[in-house]
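for the writeup, i need someone to sanity check this before i put it in the appendix. the sequnce is what the collaborator sent (i think, or maybe the updated version? ugh). structure was predicted straight from it, no edits. if anything looks off just tell me and ill rerun, i have time this weekend
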Amino acid sequence: MRLFILLIIFIIINSNSILIGQHLIGNTTIDFNDPNRNRDIETHIYYPATTTGTNTTPDTGQYPLVIIGHGYQIGYDSYQYLWEHLVPLGYIVALPATETGLFPSHGTFGEDLRYLVTAFEGANTDNTSLFYQKMKGTSAIMGHSMGGGASFLAVENDTLVTTMVSFAAAETNPSAITAANSTFIPTLTFIGDEDCVAAPVGNQLDMYNNLEDCKAYATILGGSHCQFANSNTVCELGELFCNSSNFITEQAQHDAITTLLTPWLGAWLYEDYSAWTTFDSLLGNGTDYSLEMICSTNAPQPPVIDSTNNPPTWVDQTPDNKLFEVNQNTNGEIFVRTYCQEPIYYHLFDPMGRLLKQAEVNHAYFSLSLMNFPSGIYILQLRQGSRYQSEKIIR
């Protein structure tokens, strides 16, 4: 009986680690080459694996990509808390180790962050790559301080990246504040209200105000600039004149960050509507944060339409050997009816032929939203075995 009670206590104590994630963490380093710039991008990668260690076999499944840009004079390894949190949840986390000198190019760093999305797309189709067929097709670019500003440069006028997250973003050259005017994807902006290195006014607040729907703004109460990373001596020298007695602990700041970041990424990168409702429930004031959002039209929607959701009236009721039919409304929502009994895979491409979304579908009806995408022509392709069908979508 005593042994049974001790076992129950052990399970309760460790329940968080059981619920947080099941994946182990593998790691590797790849120098990706951008041929258009003849530039090598040293990238440190942490990924869901069958065993821990370097170059171990990735776990079964396909995973979203999260790219993290480091701050000025802050090494990629100062973001260990992020990859240790995200990889077990099923994310591939990539951290470029470029622009680490005294006079970094912000624009070049932004291009590096952006190119990694393309590089992993290539790895996904390269049967010699560790990440062959491991990419889900959704991605986030995130960054801290200089890397936060460079993240805005990376996603300017881009719709291939799914979402962007910035931590204490600093203004850059070229201007991240200006780039925010041309950012069309969902964004989550973090600030620390005790940040004396890159104060919100003139930095994150100006970027946020230039963004369109859909956007969220998280203030870490008592949050410092440097505690968006792990402890780093170089960064902390910049906080010598801050009133550090007002800072919350590093662990408390990291806990507040991951509390908000986890459902945001789950909603956008896994298209998980329950994660979206969790994020929405956090609006307002928490113990160590406050959260506000403007996201009236672009929030993730439940992917499945069943008979209770009143699907639209279909013009063509005859399959004619089709895999699917498409109907859409003026708000940018696409409604799809499939004719296959087996699972079917969809791929959504932008006007340049770049893959935006992909997933397996097991339902007769499902929907996609292009509400946060710019106007243009998109291609929706569905495959079932060797059969496939493509339809043009006009946004």
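The domain at 25-294 is CATH 3.40.50.1820 (Rossmann fold). The two ends are 64 Å apart (CA to CA).
thx in advance!!
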